[in-house]
Design a protein that fits this description.
heterodimer; A: about 325 residues; alpha+beta; T-fold; nine-stranded antiparallel beta sheet; three-stranded antiparallel beta sheet; 19 strands; globular; disordered N terminus; B: about 80 residues; mainly alpha; about 35% helix; rod-shaped
């Protein structure tokens, strides 16, 4: 679904339902000389996001990613987009020390996340936290299967039967690609379901709020003129199981939902993919490791008891949301 | 009986009126520019202020009236 409207700030806004969530593209300010018009640039960004959704989703058996996963051959020539996204996800796995693992699709389905949960009401996070097992930080798989995946050009090699799930990495990847189409605009923001890239030639500051997963509203806010921010958390993709509760952030060492003492992590970075990777890694690392990870570029953790802990530059720049 | 003005007087009055109108427009523009609004850039131009940088990978702005806000959340 697409809705266009002009805001007070003369921004063009497009809203789309993609990646099982709500996506926004905001483009503002006067048209820059030699740059595409804001309307055209926003249309290109929208097309990029739609292509990413169509090719990278695991919930559509006809998507390029699903066809790759269904192919029993050890090598398959896939689309440039899918090959690029898988290469990006392998990079995220390496930088996260294996915590962001693109080969947990089987475990994810076993945990109860086989189909899209778009539009499905989440279980109560408070109830889940009361029923959850003892907290501990997650760890990488002992024998990480993602190390067996190789991307050369458009060819993807992997052991037969190894399937790929790009998860949140796809949102950060897509937000970056859409942002590239808007880089010559005066000001823009791409919000791919919480993975946000902000920029523009005008370097206009924009308010970024971090939603609180337990209290419902905005927790804190800060101003950002350029860069990316992403949030990973338990609050939306969480459901009841026969044994209790499960969610989509798995501990790669066990294949089970991770209960680390952190229920939401927000990270700032130079681009959406890196912000997404940092946010997920921080959550899986637990309170202490997560804060250390976020110290350099800034971020925020929400702990099990609802407390917000700020890291790095956000300690100076963030304030309670209005 | 209506007094008829000479061509010279009419021309002089027109010149004075034009100069007064130009001065008024220039004054208005100067006031707007001093307030940070560049009319050539549109209504939102007051937001285009230089921002302080944190030295990290992101620039944190200082504007009091930024464009549309965004909210990051788990999804």
């Amino acid at each position: 679904m697409i809705r266009n409207q002009r805001r007070e700030t003369r921004e063009l806004e497009r809203r789309l339902d993609l990646f099982g969530t709500s996506v926004r593209v905001l483009v503002g300010g006067p048209a820059s000389e030699g740059a595409p018009s804001p309307d055209l640039a926003a249309a290109v960004a929208q097309a990029v996001l739609q292509s990413c959704q169509a090719e990278l989703t695991r919930f559509d058996p006809g998507s390029e990613l699903s066809r790759l996963n269904a192919d029993p051959a050890p090598a398959r020539v896939t689309s440039k987009l899918v090959a690029g996204a898988i290469a990006a996800a392998i990079g995220a796995a390496e930088r996260s020390g294996g915590l962001v693992d693109l080969t947990l699709l089987g475990a994810m389905k076993d945990a109860g996340y086989a189909g899209s949960r778009a539009g499905v009401a989440p279980a109560s996070l408070r109830d889940a936290l009361q029923a959850a097992p003892a907290r501990h930080q997650a760890a990488a798989a002992r024998e990480p299967a993602w190390r067996w995946i190789a991307v050369t050009g458009r060819e993807v090699r992997r052991p037969p039967g190894l399937r790929v799930d790009l998860g949140g990495t796809a949102k950060g990847f897509a937000a970056d690609r859409a942002a590239a189409a808007l880089k010559d605009q005066h000001t823009f923001a791409v919000d791919a379901g919480g993975d946000i890239v902000i920029g523009g030639t005008g370097a206009v500051p924009r308010t970024v709020a971090i939603a609180h997963p337990l209290e419902g509203g905005r927790g804190i806010q800060f101003e950002l003129a350029s860069g990316a921010v992403a949030t990973s958390g338990l609050g939306t993709r969480i459901w009841r199981t026969e044994a209790g509760f499960a969610h989509h952030l798995l501990d790669p060492s066990t294949g089970q939902p991770a209960w680390t003492g952190v229920i939401q992590a927000t990270a700032l970075a130079a681009n959406g993919l890196e912000a997404e990777t940092l946010a997920k890694t921080a959550l899986l690392s637990g309170p202490e490791g997560g804060l250390q990870l976020l110290e350099a570029a800034g971020g925020a953790l929400v702990l099990d008891d609802g407390r917000i802990v700020l890291a790095g530059p956000l300690r100076e720049h963030a304030q309670e949301a209005a | 009986m209506t007094k008829r003005l000479s061509t010279k007087t009419l021309t002089l009055r027109l010149v004075v009126a034009s100069l007064a109108a130009s001065a008024a427009i220039a004054g208005g523009l100067a006031i707007q520019m001093a307030g940070g609004h560049d009319p050539a850039l549109g209504a939102g131009s007051a937001n285009a202020q230089p921002q302080a940088t944190s030295g990290s990978q992101s620039d944190f702005g200082q504007s009091a009236s930024p464009p549309a806000s965004v909210t990051t959340r788990a999804s």
